[in-house]
Amino acid sequence: MEKSKGMSRRSFVAGAGIVAMGAAAIGLTGCGSKASSDTGYSLAAADDGKWDSTSDVIVVGGGGAGLAAALEAAQSGASVTIIEAAAAVGGNTANSSGVIQAAGTDLQKKYTGITDDTPDKHAQYYIDTAEGSLDEDLVKYVCGQAPSAIEFMEGLGVTYEVVYGNGTVPYVDATLVLPRIHLAGTSDEGLQYGAWHIAALKAATDSAGVQYVFDTEATQLVQNSDGVITGVVAGDKRYKGSKGVILATCSYDRNMEMAKTFSQHMQWALEDKKAITVLTNTGGGIQMGMSVGADLAGMGGFIGLSNNIGGTPTLPGVPEVPGIIVNKYGRRFVSESDHYAWVLRQIFGQEEHIAWGVFDATAAALGGAVVGGVSPFSSDFSSEIANGSVSRADTIGELAGLIGVSSNNLQEAIDTWNTDMTTTKTDSQFPTRSCGLSAIDTPPYYATRMYDSNLGALGGLKVDTDAHVIDVQGNVISHLYAAGQVVGGFMGSFYPGTGTGVLSTVVLGRTAGKNAAAETVAS
């Protein structure tokens, strides 16, 4: 496996985490539509023939999905306007690692030596992971288009230089879990991760003549007497989309009321103030779709990351982090090296959602960025020890007292782990544990709460494989499309793997843009 230009694989996790945290913290980018305190959204406005601006296609949201949709529509000959609530394009995609999952690509063959992977196997992994809670036709379509998504981004100048793997999920056939995550290197301008992905799309939409309306919140669809969506109300203006409107506003990542309705996991993340999504992702696109009768799909899931304790087998070049995770009683309950979102689901299922990552001086020596992952600690944990977010003690018993768990149970968990590591070098409790297989026996000992550094909600508008929005009676809502995380039904109750979200933005964005541009002009 080769190194990415200008980026060591060890730097990947720390760099991606810092980029995500920094951009989210200062609110650099948005995703199209944000709710006010009273939501700000209402039923569709009537089409009275009065417009302030007219384009063939209106795209609500300038994140990865919106840019892909706008570009495809423009390249198909349509005039396109993007309406974005924030001051710049980017959305969650800009804060992401910018990776794309795809099976059967030439890059996968080149970097992994795997020659028999297929989009069908890729889709089956997603289907099995979701436990029957997704739209299989939609998943098969997106996975079938995944190789072309890589080619599309390569055509915009992005170069993928690493293909790596996904963590396992205990109930999913391990033969379906293959290296499919395509990671780009560094652009000539020094851009990495999602920043390069977005910059490449933005340069292309600029060249294609796409128009942008920034700092403007879209709050209402416009619908004519025949039920056709003909435009949007944004700010104090009405924007006509003669051929169609594409909702690409991401999900309800920052909407507490929607979280209370649809996802206790998202409510937990928001209450703990651990969300690292952009501030404008408040569910506006979903609410606007619902206002014209759109059905919902896949509601309730989440995308989340936590600390790296227990190893990070899916990240290239990142050191394994020896350690275990225990609940409020000091007992282990999960294989820490399984897929990170699966581990988070198990954490959420513990009483009061309490879980502690426990590690020793050997792991601490790797540094706070490695152990902390997407939410890096200071290099020597000193600031975290001072503020109480990391506890340190010379003995396991003392550590148990600091974090309020049973000393006997925690000591038993550590003793069992250490016996396994010094005898069989395998985890007798959770045999899928695949990394960080080292004894925890070098004081001082450390513990930290395992929170969800949340990357967004899953679930949204129901669409078909043409990206048409579908109403509650199963009919297409004429001239209304959706793409990206505003769409539901592509993933289950937890995120199935890094690169899935960006994949959906590219494939469904392009599909929506192409099909909207092909519509006849609404009368």
List the helices and strands and how they pair.
Elements: H1 11-26, E1 45-46, E2 53-60, H2 64-75, E3 80-83, H3 91-94, E4 100-101, H4 106-112, H5 119-129, H6 136-155, E5 160-164, E6 181-184, H7 193-207, E7 211-213, E8 218-223, E9 229-234, E10 237-247, H8 256-262, H9 264-271, H10 284-291, E11 296-305, E12 324-327, H11 340-348, E13 355-360, H12 361-364, H13 368-372, H14 382-387, E14 390-393, H15 396-403, H16 407-423, E15 445-449, E16 453-461, E17 468-470, E18 476-482, H17 500-517
Parallel strand pairs: 1-8, 2-3, 2-10, 3-7, 10-18
Antiparallel strand pairs: 4-6, 5-6, 8-9, 9-10, 11-16, 12-13, 13-15, 14-15, 17-18
Describe the structure.
The protein is an alpha/beta fold and 523 residues long. The protein folds into 2 domains: 357 residues, FAD/NAD(P)-binding domain; 145 residues, Succinate dehydrogenase/fumarate reductase flavoprotein, catalytic domain (Flavocytochrome C3, Chain A, domain 1), CATH 3.90.700.10. The chain has 17 helices and 18 strands. Strands 1, 2, 3, 7, 8, 9, 10, 17 and 18 form a 9-stranded mixed β-sheet that branches. Strands 12-13-15-14 form a 4-stranded antiparallel β-sheet. Strand 2, helix 2 and strand 3 form a beta-alpha-beta unit. Helix 2 packs parallel to helix 7 and helix 6 packs across helix 17.
